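User: Please predict the structure of the protein below. I'd like the answer in structure-token form so I can feed it into my own downstream comparison script.

Assistant: Understood. Taking the following sequence of 238 residues as input:
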Amino acid sequence: MNATTATRSSSVSRPYQNPTRVLNSVLAPFEKRVLFWLAVRMPAWVHSDHLTGLALAAMLGAGLSFWLASVTPIGLILVVACLAVNWFGDSLDGTLARVRRHERPRYGFYVDHAADLFGTLFLLGGVAMSGYMAPLVAAALLAVYFMLSAEIYLATHTVGRFTMSLFWIGPTELRILLAVGTLMLAVRPAVELFGQTVRLFDVGGVCAIAGLFVALVVSAVSNTRTLYRAEPRPPARP
């Protein structure tokens, strides 16, 4: 075993303290009960890795369905179905591990959220190719999402708090908003704004960019203040 491998192995084997999970979204109390009900009824052969993989495959399916929607409206229905499957896999994997007491905190956190990053890339890539949203808007939305994700993951490591919702909106609420907007595309893909006809998803995308950016700034300021108070600058030496 070389020095690099030994260092990596020792760092992974160190005691790990789970971060505090913060989920204050509107649907969180109801969702928690539903997920527990599902977890205790899952077949024994299904484990959390299966659900994480299912969630990632569903996001790939959602992206492909958006691309299909440029040819047939059936793609929009498939998008909503894929979002529902993604919710099932992504929300249930951690609950299943906790119910069965099979938690793998570091592995689960890493794999779950790495899959989220790839899934979002697949989803917004499909939206950009669908013609329902300008590629530039989709790219900007992806960039802000990645920035906010990095901020949350940094705070998880340094502050010990994993924030899963901002402004009472969490992943489930975002899926519902996206599903409703997707269904609206079938009847009204464009809207009038300031006398101009613009794509519905361009308007929604710009609003999402603004909201995520505000959340990014608020989170960064709050976490910086928390860390500064925990580790104040030492007084200058004479």
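That's the full token string. The chain has a mean pLDDT of 90.
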